[in-house]
Amino acid sequence: MKDLSNIADRLHFLAVPLKTLSHDPQNARRHSKRNLDAVRASLEEHGQVKPVVAMPDGTVIAGNGTLEAARSLGWEYLAVVTFMGDAHAARRYGVQDNRTAELADWDDDALASILSDMRTEDADLEALGFSDVELDRLLAEAVPLSLGTTDPNEEYRGMPDFEQPEASGIRMVIHFANQEDRSMFAKLIGQEFTPKTRSIWFPAVPWDRASKEVYE
Predict the structure, then answer these.
(1) Cα(40)–Cα(54) distance, rounded to whole angstroms?
(2) How many Å is the maximal CA-CA distance in the chain?
(3) Where in the chain is the domain with CATH 3.90.1530.10?
(4) Do the Cβ atoms of 40 and 72 come closer than 8 Å?
(5) Alpha carbon of 96 to those of 29, 88, 89: distances in Å?
(6) Nearest by Cα to 36 from 103, 102, 98, 129
(7) What are phi and psi of 158, to 5 degrees?
(8) CA gap 9, 42 in Å, rounded
(9) pLDDT in tens, 194-208
(10) Shortest CA distance to 213 belongs to which of 162, 161, 169, 165?
(11) Which residues of 207-216 are buried (b: 16+ CB within 10 A; e: fewer)?
């Protein structure tokens, strides 16, 4: 069973030599580098946990991306389910398989919560196939789920006044481990950070550049 090490145990009985499989020349689905990188990352991390679908002659009609990724990894076998319909039915199935996946939607709140949990576990989020921009947006949306929906202004109400002679306020210096944390903090306090942002007022107040005072 050594040669089948790249296939999950429960799929061993479906193992087919990779050299006997071929891409569907009529496949209407295209796989970008980003897509193939994500498929390859999944195969490397989890192995193959679901079979591809192929005609009796080895033409893959569902799972062409998996086939390409497996070849790039140097695999010798894939788990395959054989489609027993004719060529017309195979084309219909190939389109339906891809289209039904496209029609599903993400639950952004649930996904944001999952990604937030993964981040605390130091998981490689980039290997999931999301861009940095997408991850920033989703992780920012996870702040209310992980910290609770709080109004920062409410946290200060009822607290005693702070008195400090010869001072116009309290200066706090905050360091962020990465851009994701910085984006989450900006969303939490309801302010926008730009590459030129060096200091802010909280709660937000207009910045008077003509003033002699320095606000932070």
Answers:
(1) 20
(2) 86
(3) 2-102
(4) yes
(5) 11, 13, 10
(6) 129
(7) 90, -10
(8) 17
(9) 777 777 777 776 655
(10) 169
(11) eeeeeeeeee
45, pLDDT greater than 60: yes
Which of 88, 72, 70 shows the shortest CA–CA distance to 7? 70
Q: Per the structure block, which two tokens stand in for 160?
A: 């005693």
Instruction: Compute φ and ψ for 61, nearest 5 degrees.
Output: -110, -10
Dump the DSSP string for 131-197.
Answer: -HHHHHHHHHHTHHHHH-S--HHHHHTTPPPP--TT-SS-------SSHHHHHHHHHHHT----TT-
DSSP 70: H
The fraction of the chain above a pLDDT of 70, given in percent, is 79
CB contact at 8 A, 71 and 18: yes
2-102, which class in CATH? alpha beta
Residue 212 DSSP code: S
